[in-house]
Amino acid sequence: MKVLVVNCGSSSTKYTLFEMESEKKIAWGIVECIGLSEAYYKRQTSDAKEKKTSIKVTNHTEAVELIIEDLLDKKTGSIANIDEIAVVGHRIVHGGDKFSKSVLVTKEVKKGLKECFSIAPLHTPAHYAGILAVEKMLPGIPSVLVFDTAFHQTMPDYAYMYALPYEYYEKHHIRKYGFHGTSHNYVSQRAAAMLRKSLSELKLITAHLGNGSSITAIEKGKVIDTSMGFTPLQGVMMGTRCGDIDPAIIAYIIKKYPRYKNDDDLNTLMNKESGLLGISGLSGDMRTTIKASAEGNKKAKLAFEMLCYSIKKYISAYCGILNGIDGLVFTAGIGENSMAVREKICANLHALGIEMDAKKNNEPSVEERFVSTANSKVKIMIIPTNEELMIARESKVCLHASAQTDE
Ligand code: ADP
């Protein structure tokens, strides 16, 4: 059984074709810079063949068409016939409070997704175009939507509500949604496997640390709280995002800087010009920040310390909320690769039962592994995330579940 995973981002479309018996990737690739003159298509296959071509694609529909035509290519493609694909799984960034789990695409589901346009205007229209293009190119093949927000829908109301007038929640659905849910879900399942326990017996904190970062508190497999909010801006400091700030600062900035004229200007400031980049003035990239800090750049050092401190605060708070934890997981670009960030975050957390083994933490590896000391009450794990595989698995489960209800 083959499953195609499609991820239409704001300016790119990624895909992965899986063989589900082995859960191995057969082909994967990306159309990048959609709508720009430097657009290109890069494809890789499991036999290590790589192809990169410059192309002209003006929108996500064309990107999906190009990908599917390439998968079907008589000479270099990976499938002979569209019927080889059992189901297509679409990554959807925001499901609002409409979608609490993965769903098979129907007319009603598409209508519901359209209602989420205003809540995630950069991503949802791109997802929608991708769904329509798949329907056109792969007629009769079912599609499943897998939401980044769905895993977080178990949060209690006192965790997801903001202390604003209640009508904003009722009229405009302003509440915490949380993001990276597919990643938090995947690594929590892997953590349970590594600990040889059922998720129902565990209290975990998962730290997805990439360009965008979020921390999640999970008890018995259910999200209790997560650091991102109504949008992926809230929470810890990130590459170019400010994370938590006093909201009154924004009103003050508008008064001080007449150049900030509208919500777009302010969103750019908080999402693209802040975080590591805003503090160091150098880069939003963690590797660049760490290198500059090592070379004596004081602002880069400050940026690094601020980012680690903000993560440490969330982990400590979530340890309190959960009344102690069994496992702490690091994942994504920074979480999987930066020993310096992990070390700084875990330093002096003995009171919470978190003790890192410096030697294990410094061993380079791309495998799942433990990096806590033998005596650490909390097991610290590094788990490479695999959102595409999680989407493929969810799509397969959803397809089977719908087949059963049809019988
Ligand atoms: P995204 O959120 O875009 O998916 P990633 O999960 O790929 O991002 O994470 C990108 C971040 O990971 C960048 O800040 C990058 O510098 C950082 N990163 C990757 N490898 C390392 C490393 N070896 N050391 C420190 N940071 C790293």
Features:
Nucleotidyltransferase, domain 5, six-stranded mixed β-sheet, alpha/beta, binds adenosine-5'-diphosphate, single chain, globular, 39% helix, 407 residues
Given the helix and strand composition, which structural class is it?
A: alpha/beta
How much strand content do the residues show? 15-25%
CATH superfamily of the largest domain: ATPase, nucleotide binding domain
What's the structural domain tally? 2
Written as H for each helix and E for each strand, in order along the chain, the element string is EEEEEHEEHHEHHHEEEHHHHHEHHHEEH
How many β-strands, per DSSP?
14
Helical segment tally? Answer: 15
Q: Poorly predicted ranges (pLDDT <50, ≥5 residues)?
A: none
Q: Looking at the structure, what is the overall shape?
A: globular
Major sheet strand order = 5-4-3-2-1-6-8-7
Backbone CA Rg: 22 Å
Helix content: 25-40%
